[in-house]
Fold:
Amino acid sequence: MTENPQSMFSDGAAYERLMGRWSKKAGEQFLDWLAAGKGLSWLDVGCGNGAFTEEIVSRCAPASVSGIDPSEGQIAYARTRPGTRMAEFHVGDSQALPFSDGSYDAATMALVIAFVPDPAKGVAELARVLRPGGTAAAYMWDLPAMGVPLGPIYKALRDMDMPGPQPPSAEFSRREAMEALWRGAGLDEVETTVIRVPVSFDNFEDFWQSNTLPAGPHAKFVHAMPEAAREELRRRLKDSLPTAADGRIAYESVANAVTGRKRR
Structure:
């Protein structure tokens, strides 16, 4: 896939329904696991529509927070969130952060690493902008294992021999790959964990409408499918999704997380 992430996720409101609510649950677990101290300066790289930035503000009592993302549309949405009023937002590139060396106590990538064309360069930038002893951390849906909330659609498309687009660095969402990136960047005290997020929808139409909003690569791929193929996808999903007697759909998504410290 060669599409620019800026064009993949440009509608903050649509992304909120597609992924934001599940991202919030994953982000809560991630921050609980990090257990960072209060009064730190934070950088949220690939902040998107500000969902995770808002979690940093509400859960970590930061001294300051900066968010950066390549999408002007996402940044515009992030600035409207009541919970991000203390944050500063910038449009920019994760592989060339516009910040000085040693500017932050904590730098994170929330559901971003798989979209960075050169993940090693992105992690090196995280480390560069940290103060000695600062924390670099990330989490990402386990894409090779179809752990993303869109996993049922991934699987159905694969079974139709119509595999949808994948982020350029999907393999780096694996737990061992993330650990290797952090160690390769010279970070110490590297640890990893698995985050499990319950995903649920009121009924099939809720699932379908939520997951086919044109706010990401798979949703755009589904919109562009011939009508017959799209109906076949709907049928396969109806047949395969775990559905309760009242029509409710529930399953689990899985993300991998990693953290490390910059040498003092």
